[in-house]
């Protein structure tokens, strides 16, 4: 498979695949409904929209989205919308679940629910895929939204999730930079120590399918000039496809810096679940929500074929 290097390429790829049914939790939002409208136009997805029916219908009219009566399912609260959207996926009435205008914590509680959620045996983790101006490839940030302070063991599993995801986008050997505040191992700075351990686990074949290195500062992970200036010699330095961040604070700040200072678009998914799960910020654009749907279509097709 040809490697996907841009979000528009992901959209084009999704258009060639089987459309999926997406269950949206709390769909009463302009940006969500614009993404729904555009995904339907491109025939990459059908939808089941859970939320306040009147509100969904009035916003849909504003964005020129025509809905049939079976596409909207009225719910009385956001929690009910999350539970019902996840249930739709569990009982195979939908293939993908998507966060709408609801807090990530409420949405994730439904996804992670032990009896009624979409857990597998794996650690679930979030990845945000950015097209950043001036960077020559897609940059994956993990985990900016789900694992608050992952342990070393959890970081290994977060890496395994993102490696499989990169493979689904045709990147067979992604370059992964484990980020910290500095690029040397400092026993007083746990992220630097864990980055070194993960690097060694990759070298010894305990984490396969990628080239992992670290610790790196952000500069030398994504800038060849910075890496050369600091005399860092690594296949990954300046060319990272994936940034493993130390914790949710670093990841979420980096995510929102790329959006608000960098003007980047993105796609966001939860990995490791039974079905694709779309999770973006409530404030992300409809373009980013559409790209997320495209990535979910690709992931669904990949999961069917492996
Ligand atoms: C993937 C970003 C998660 C997030 O921060 O969501 P909200 O902005 O909706 O809180």
Please, could you describe this protein's structure?
An eleven-stranded mixed sheet has the order 3-2-1-4-11-10-5-6-9-7-8, with helices on both faces. The chain folds into two domains: 152 residues, Rossmann fold (3-Layer(aba) Sandwich), CATH 3.40.50.10950; 147 residues, Isopropylmalate Dehydrogenase, CATH 3.40.718. The chain is α/β, with parallel strands linked by helices and 306 residues long. Helices cover 42% and strands 18% of the residues. It has eleven helices and eleven strands. Bound molecules: ligand LANB7ZPL. The ligand CCCC(=O)OP(=O)(O)O binds next to helix 10. It comes from Thermoflavimicrobium dichotomicum. One of its GO terms (molecular function) is phosphate butyryltransferase activity. Keywords: Acyltransferase, Transferase. This is Phosphate butyryltransferase.
């Amino acid at each position: 498979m040809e490697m996907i290097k841009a979000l528009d390429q992901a959209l084009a790829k999704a258009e060639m695949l089987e459309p999926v049914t997406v269950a949206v939790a709390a769909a009463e939002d302009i940006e969500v409904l614009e993404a729904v409208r555009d995904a339907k136009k491109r025939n990459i997805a059908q939808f089941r929209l859970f939320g306040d029916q009147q509100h969904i219908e009035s916003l849909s009219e504003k964005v020129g989205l025509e809905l049939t009566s079976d596409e909207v399912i009225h719910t009385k609260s956001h929690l009910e919308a999350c539970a019902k959207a996840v249930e739709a996926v569990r009982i195979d009435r939908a293939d993908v679940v998507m966060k709408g205008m609801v807090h990530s914590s409420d949405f994730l509680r439904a996804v992670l629910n032990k009896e009624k959620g979409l857990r597998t045996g794996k650690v679930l983790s979030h990845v945000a895929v950015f097209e950043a101006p001036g960077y020559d490839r897609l940059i994956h940030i993990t985990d900016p939204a789900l694992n608050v302070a992952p342990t070393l063991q959890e970081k290994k599993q977060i890496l395994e999730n993102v490696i499989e995801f990169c493979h689904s986008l045709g990147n067979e050997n992604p370059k992964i930079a484990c980020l910290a505040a500095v690029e040397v191992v400092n026993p007083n700075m746990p992220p630097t120590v864990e980055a070194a351990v993960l690097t060694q686990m990759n070298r010894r074949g305990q984490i396969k399918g990628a080239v992992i290195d670290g610790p790196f500062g952000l500069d030398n992970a994504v800038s060849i000039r910075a890496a050369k200036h600091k005399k860092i010699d690594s296949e990954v330095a300046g060319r990272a496809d994936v940034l493993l961040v130390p914790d949710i604070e670093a990841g979420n700040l980096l995510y929102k810096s790329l959006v608000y200072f960098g003007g980047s678009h993105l796609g966001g998914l939860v990995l490791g679940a039974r079905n694709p799960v779309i999770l973006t910020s409530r404030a992300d654009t409809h373009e980013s929500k559409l790209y997320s749907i495209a990535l979910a279509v690709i992931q669904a097709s990949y999961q069917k074929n492996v």
